[in-house]
Structures are given as C-alpha cells and as structure tokens.
Amino acid sequence: MKTGTLTIFEKSRPGRKAYSLPECDVPKTPLSELIPERLLRDTPPGLPEVSEVDAVRHFTELSKRNYGVDSGFYPLGSCTMKYNPKINEEAARMKGFTQIHPYEPEESVQGCLEVLYKTGEMLAEITGMEKFSLQPAAGAHGELCGLMIMKAWHESRSDTARKKIIVPDSAHGTNPASAAVAGFEVVEVKSDENGWIDLKSLRETMTEEVAGLMLTNPNTLGLFDGNILEIADIVHEKGGLLYYDGANMNAIMGITRPGDMGFDIVHLNLHKTFSTPHGGGGPGSGPVGVVKKLVPFLPKPVIEYSGKSYYLDYDRPLSIGRVKSFYGNFTVVLKAYAYMLSMGPEGLRQASETAVLNANYILKKLKDDYLLPYDRVCMHEVVFSALKQKEYGVSALDIAKRLLDFGYHPPTVYFPLIVKEALMIEPTETESKETLDRFISAMKQIAKEAETNAEYLKSAPHNTVVSRLDEARAARNPVLNEMSRAAE
Amino acid sequence: MNDFEIKKYSTEHEWVGVDGDRAYIGITEYAANSLGEIVYVELPELGNELNAGDVLGVVESVKAASDIYSPISGKVVEVNEELTDNPEIINEDPENCWIAVLEISDPAQLDELMDEKEYEEYCAEEE
C-alpha cells in the first residue's frame, strides 16, 4: 500500500502533536465546573495526533489528487466543463461585494442589486425570456422552481386537471426527478431515428391532462431538434407549457434562443454555460427565466429598478414565494456577470461556435474508431458508442478507466440511456486544437488496445494512485466513515 | 422454479412465469447483462393493484436506474424480500430470480406478450 493511501488516523501516534503552548499563567479550572458533568464526554475525541510536517504532507498529497479544469482536459458530456476565467474570481473577491450583509438596507447595497438586476436582464436577452429569478441554487433546483411556476399558472386559470409532465427518453435524469418532486406524474415520449422527439408519440401523449413538456435543445445526443416549432405548437395547442432545460445552452448562445423556439420557462446553469466553478460543490446557480405571462409567478422578492434605484419587490401576490434563503448564490451570479461583460455578445456567440466546432472535430476524427449511432453534424457534444469495442469484451467503462492513465477526466458514460455503451464527449470551446489532438490520439490508441489487448483495458487504470474500484461492492456495502471502515 | 406452465417476455425485457393464477415477474438475462451489476432493487408494495405497463419497481445498477414495468395487470401478492439485502442474486440467475408475484387479473394479456423464440429474435434486433 502506498503511504499516500493511509488515512490521517492511521498516521496518528499517541502524544505526537503540532503545537506547543506556553505555560498557563491563570489558575486552571476543572472542565466539570464550567460545563455540566452530564454534557461531558466519557472518552476524549479520537482526533489524529501527528506532527505539523506530517499534517501538511498528508493534506498536500490529498490536494494533488484533485482533478479539475485547471489541471487538465475534462470532456464530461452534458456538464460543460469549460475553463473558469480567473478574472471572475477577482470580481467576486472585491470588498464592495464581500463585506456586505444580506440584511443591509437596499440603499447600502445598490451595487449588488444592480449586478443581480443586470445579470437577469442579460440572461433574458440571451434566452428570449421576459424576466429571470436568480434564486435557484443549481440546475435541478431551477427545474423544480420552473415546474412550480408552471403549476401555479395552470392553477391560477382554474385548470387543475393537469397532473402530468412529458419528458423525452433522452432527457437528463433530473427532469423526471424534478417533475416527480413537484407532484407530477411523468410520461415518457420516445425519440425517432434521428434522435429527435417522435412527433406521433408526442401527439398521442399531449392531452389536456398534461401541464407541460420538459426539453433540452440541443438534446443529450448533442443534436438540435429541428421540429422544435412544431413541438411547441403541439404542446401549446393542448394548453401546455414548454420547459427548456438549459444544460446545453453552450451550443446556441447568440445563435438562437429558447424564447424564439416557443419555450415558456428556461433554467440556465451558470456553472456550465457561464463559466462559474462546477464540481467540488461549485456552488452552482440555476436562474429561471419566464415569458411575460408567467412573470407574476416568479419567486419573490424580484429585483426591480424604479428609474432611480434598485429595490426588492415583495408585493407579488401570485408569486410561488421564496425558493432560497436571501437572493441566490450571489457571488456565483457575480462571476457569470463578469464573464458576460468580458465576453460581450460577439464573444458569447464565438464561444458557442467554437464549442460546436470542437465537438465536430472530435466526431470527425474518431468516427472510424468508435461507433457513431447518430451520424450527423452534432452541436456542442458528440455521443459515441463502445459497441465496436464490446465485441472484444471492452465496455465504455473500461475505456473511461483507461483514459485516466492518460491524465484525462473521462467523458460521461452510459448516458444518454438510449445509446448503448454511450461515451458522451463535450470538449467545450476553451480547449486548443493541440489538446483535442492529444485526446483524440489517446482515444485511438485505446480503440487499438481493445482489439489487441482487451485484458489491459479491463484492468485499467494502471498509472493512478488508486486502481480500479469495485463499484458494485461500494454501492452494495458503502463504508461511509472511519469507524465503519475500522470495523470492516 | 423454472418449470412454469407458461413463460412470456415483454418488450421492456421482463419475464412472466405463470403458475395457476399467479404470475412471477423478473427481468431477463438480456436486461440483467445490459444493466451490469445490480446494487439495489425497489420492490412494489404488497396489495398494490397494477395495470399492465405500470411501474412495478426499480432496479439500480452501477450504470443506471431502470424502472421495471409490469407486463400484465394484477395485484401484488408476494415480493422477493431477499432482494433487499442481496440484490446481486438477480445477476447470478436472472431468469429464475423473481421480483414479485401478481395475482393475474386478465389472463388474455399474456397472449400479447412474446414467447421465448419471439423474444430471442427481438433481442437480436435490439443489438
């Protein structure tokens, strides 16, 4: 076992410490005189006892195992792991933003309110919505919030029979989950041979019991659904609303807008499309935007501008209420605002164009090595299948594990569910051609290894600190803390 | 367990084994193989009245969580409790590991399902 794999508890030695205190120069008082005896623990806490250098080395070693966009290529499909410009962090650390309190009066936080207001305006322009709420904490929270707005709108019109939400079979798993949490019954529609929504199936499913349709466009296959206007008509004719899952917004910024496609509600992932940190807890931010008729239902308070100053509008009787304490993940919103300002409208459009170009470059370069189930120009991500490699007994998981040896974060695997052995690659716009070429050559080498040395792939990774994990055992018998580990 | 009077298959890769008015429901070997190692099974509640096509339970593997659809209508009269602690027994022998037993309410529905040969052809097409 490598020393790096020992826990800090295993490195502990009784009496070893990383501090030395001066002699106490005040009278000592027994703890039991300060704290009631019944509240004192019987045994001292099991804290690790190590020297300072051991503590520093231990955590430095752990920190080196982190992998993020700052360490390397991260083509995790559907997650838009683009580079997070450091200027965003500069903006978020400015004292005027950090040294405030959420209970301050409106007049002393005008700058913060302005940032929120203007970010909302920009997002509305980018998506073709009327107004945004920046409260939702991340994507799935945005979905839930959007569905609550949908429900409130139907109910405000005394249309209470709508208990169902339609979700395509290629949807992100959060869509049916959010619909279920919002109290809807989920109905699935199939995709056609193009990977688009099957219109016949949609017409059959779209009844007056359906509150709305949740859709990602481009969808999770990285394909833009060219029937979107017809889809919107089918849903609207039956009195439903269209919900846009903005996870794939990185493909279309400045090119087309959900509002122009007929969508009524949109959530965005600032931690994907708008370059704020993702993974490791983010935190995320999932603003929700709506068309004009739904504005009264947005969470409150809504930030408004009187012509002279910004204020928080609580007087909104139809609002679904507050969905987050205070005003959302403010500094995340701030980073997205900094990003939009530094990119500008042309820059955002270029980002989307390059994201699409990069994905198509990978598609073209790897389509002879990996099966491409939907062989068309893709948008910002490309979905391959490992079925060719499966003939040699190599699965998508084996390929993902082997990529770790090359120092890459693997792509998303086994999603979307409608592609067998799916490998979903989203390079984003921030990668150079050289990076893409290196990744492509690693993928080509892996495809060759599948034919000549399948066993080597099945036991990958070989060069990482931790070798192949037994995922099934981890899921069946999770060991979640040190005490149960010691008991093993 | 394998000696059902009739064994039928659904397009969603469930099998139905008929024993009198009781129908044993499980997932096929094809389904178990494509799911990979199963780590959790959500069983239906006893007494639930299911219609054909309703969600009977959920199987979760390291790859994905999938709904199990009831191929026929009926009342849940028994569930395989052993799956709660040992979900892996499905992978060991999927075609014999039943998940729940339904009291068949409409035997005619069985005619709409595939027999073994038809199901084999169906799987070959899916590949």
Give a description of the structure:
The complex is a heterodimer of chains A (488) and B (127). The two termini of chain A are 17 Å apart. Chain A is built from 17 helices and twelve strands. Chain A has three domains: 3-64, no CATH class; 86-342, Type I PLP-dependent aspartate aminotransferase-like (Major domain) (Aspartate Aminotransferase, domain 2), CATH 3.40.640.10; 352-475, Aspartate Aminotransferase, domain 1 (Alpha-Beta Complex). In chain A, helix 11 crosses helix 14. Chain A has helices at residues 31-34, 52-64, 86-92, 95-98, 110-127, 139-156, 174-181, 199-205, 228-237, 258-261, 330-366, 387-390, 396-405, 433-452, 454-458, 471-476, 482-487, and strands spanning 131-133, 164-168, 185-189, 210-215, 241-245, 265-267, 288-290, 302-305, 310-313, 382-385, 412-413, 422-425. By secondary structure, chain A is of the alpha/beta class. The radius of gyration of chain A is 26 Å and the shape is globular. By secondary structure, chain B is an alpha+beta fold. Chain B has one domain (6-113): OB fold (Dihydrolipoamide Acetyltransferase, E2P). Chain B is 20% helix and 36% strand. Chain B contains four helices and nine strands, in the order βββαβββββααβα. Chain B has helices at residues 29-35, 82-85, 89-92, 116-126, and strands at residues 6-9, 14-19, 22-27, 38-42, 49-50, 55-61, 65-69, 74-79, 100-104. In chain B, strands 1-2-3-9-8-5 form a six-stranded antiparallel sheet. A three-stranded antiparallel sheet of chain B has the order 4-6-7. The radius of gyration of chain B is 13 Å and the shape is globular. The mean pLDDT of chain B is 93. The chains are: A alpha/beta (488), B alpha+beta (127). At the A-B interface, helix 16 of A face loops of B.
What tags apply to this protein structure?
heterodimer; A: 488 residues; alpha/beta; Aspartate Aminotransferase, domain 2; Aspartate Aminotransferase, domain 1; 3 domains; seven-stranded mixed sheet; three-stranded antiparallel sheet; 10% strand; globular; B: 127 residues; alpha+beta; OB fold (Dihydrolipoamide Acetyltransferase, E2P); 4 helices; 20% helix; 36% strand
